[in-house]
Specification:
By secondary structure, this protein is an alpha+beta fold. The chain has seven helices and five strands. The chain has a three-stranded antiparallel sheet. Strands 1-2 form a two-stranded antiparallel sheet. α5 packs across α6.
Length: about 220
């Protein structure tokens, strides 16, 4: 792809910027006219080297925001686990506006949620807190470091789910915390005194969401 795509586009369209990872790429154009011209040339180029653009993934996307308010068939795309689309943002002075921003994609969030569910943390009653933290923190830090680089609040639902599993673990392991209220209080106290105990507590503290979500999960 370096020869078939990278060098070719640098030679044929030197003013056009792009990012590529393996066989996925995003090409930045300044107008729809330019985008269609580049896309047509790219179809010819791929055919010339015996390749073909993916019909389902290849599309022209309009980066809609507060300054670009037109209409287009496609206003979002997914690349490297992030979905880029219009999202609400806030300036430093507090004014809200619409910006074209990336956040973790639905597929990536679903995959992470499935992995968290597969851990069955609430059944680890033979393990203590440090053991659980040692096992899950590296994975959670990796998710936060990668997917949390942009629009981190999109990752909060899965982090709250981890808290809920931990709450159920507390209830299953300790007789003195068998009620929702007692277990929630214990989790909140642990997060307050040891905020770095679990990696995700840096973003989502259990005290704010346990009473709302624990019974529903």
């Amino acid at each position: 792809m370096h020869y078939a795509f990278d060098l070719w586009i640098e030679r044929e369209f030197p003013l056009v910027r792009f990012e590529r990872y393996a066989d996925d790429a995003v090409i930045h154009c300044v107008s729809e006219h330019q985008a269609r011209k580049v896309l047509a040339a790219l179809h010819e180029r791929m055919a010339g080297v015996g390749l073909e653009l993916h019909p389902g993934k290849t599309k022209i996307v309009y980066c809609k925001d507060s300054n670009r308010r037109g209409s287009h068939e496609h206003t979002s795309f997914t690349f490297l686990g992030f979905t880029f689309r219009p999202r609400q943002a806030r300036r430093k002075d507090g004014v809200q506006f619409t910006s074209f921003l990336p956040a973790i994609s639905k597929d990536a969030l679903k995959k992470i949620s499935a992995e968290v569910r597969s851990w069955r943390l609430h059944r680890w009653i033979s393990s203590d807190g440090p053991e659980i933290a040692e096992l899950i923190n590296p994975k959670v830090r990796g998710w936060m470091g990668y997917y949390g680089a942009f629009y981190p609040s999109a990752l909060y639902p899965v982090l709250r789910r981890i808290n809920t599993y931990l709450l159920r673990w507390v209830m299953n392991k300790y007789k003195k915390h068998r009620t929702w209220k007692k277990a929630t209080r214990a989790m909140a106290e642990a997060a307050a005194t040891r905020p770095q105990y679990f990696a995700h507590w840096a973003w989502v503290k259990p005290a704010r969401q346990m009473t709302r979500t624990a019974r529903a999960v």
